Each structure stands twice: as C-alpha cells, then as structure tokens.
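Pasting as-is:
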Amino acid sequence: MSPAVLRLDERTGIHWEWQTMAQTIDGPRLAPRSGRAKRLVVLLHGYGADGNDLIEIGRQWQAWLPDTYFVAPHAPSRLPQMPTGRQWFPLTMRDPNERWVGANAAQPVIDAFLDAEFARHGLDESKLALVGFSQGTMMALHVGLRRARPPAALLGYSGLLVADERAGTEALKDDIRGRPPVLLIHGEADDLIPADALFLSAEGLAKAEVPCQWHLCPGLGHGIDAEGLRHGGLFLTQCFGLPYPARGAAG
C-alpha cells in the first residue's frame, strides 16, 4: 500500500485522506464450522471502531448461517484524534454533502475487497450479504446498490441512506444498478443518528423501488441489541434461502 496523502478542502476545512494507488483492506475473519464457504457475510463497522467491533456478530449467527464465511475489514483511514479508530470517510458536519463525497471516495476500496473475497472463496454476489453499523450501514447501502450484480441482502443497523444533497433521494433510482432486499434496524432512542433517519432512508429506498423492510428497537440507543441481532439473522437466512432456524439455535 502506498503512503497516505492528506488533502485539505479549503472550503469546508475537511481533511481527506487519499492514496496515490489503490488501497487494500483486511480485518478479522471467521471461517465456517464446516470448513467450506458457500456464503459470504461482510461486516462494515462504524466510525471510530474497527473490524473487531463486529466480527463477534458472526459467532451469534453461525448456527443460523451454516457454511458462511464472515469477515469484518478495517476501514482504510485512521482517525487523527483516535489512533486506534478507523473511518470509511471523514465526518466533520461542516459540509452537508460530505457523506456523499466520502461514500463515493470509499466505494472503490470496498468494491476491490469484495472482488478479492469472491476470488478467494469461489463465490459471487448472489452469495453475498453486506451488513453495516452506523457509517458502515452508509457504505453497505452505497456499495451494495451499485454493484454490477446485486448482493443477496443488505442489512443496516443504526445508519442511513447517503444521498447527494443537491439532488436528493429522488435521483437514487437512476443512480443505482441493482435492487437487493434491504432490512434497516434502528434504536428508537438513538441520539447519535436519530430514528427519523430510518424512516427517511426507507422512504428513499421505496422511491427507488428497492424492497425495504425496517424494524425499530424500543428503548435502544446507538447500538445493536439481541432483538436486532435476531431480526437481522432471520432476514439473512430468508435472503439466502435457508430453512427457518429452530428457536434458540443462534449462538
């Protein structure tokens, strides 16, 4: 990997981290108990975390998703104020369009990672689920809706649909390439990304004719609880065409 280059956007004061060559990313992995991968679940973490924050979700879902390989790549950029934290793109709240610019900048990195994983396991998008939390949800939706072939499922926790603020979500219909099934899960008491983001995102996806379900977790803040894990796991089993798991099978 080539060294990072920091560029200051003088209009917004945002420091963007770029690479002079294509970046590669990696993170913790969880192989299927059978030893043979028939499906791939990629977990995209939130702002300030890294892949270790989400990989344990794979252990919770292993019984429901046999023969599934889980991987949680670390985002490519470190946070200057938090050396152990990572970001898919900077968030300063100074520019209303920074999420759109940032998601587009990070998309090729994730696309390249997915292509490498398909080659590694002999799989394709029909066996892929992208799962995100917070900023990772932004990336899961942004990337998953623009793959040449749609993934089997997109699952987002505590995040939102990124749109070009100048065009709005109405432009999404002409911008995306596929319409995979989506489930959005959000905490009712989320004070970081308020639950309104769930409804706005679901509305934007519906306008773009993307099949979207949603679930609101009562009393939950910015996080994932057992109820959300259960709903997400069941959604993935359905999208992968797996049998409905027996009660108490997860974990």
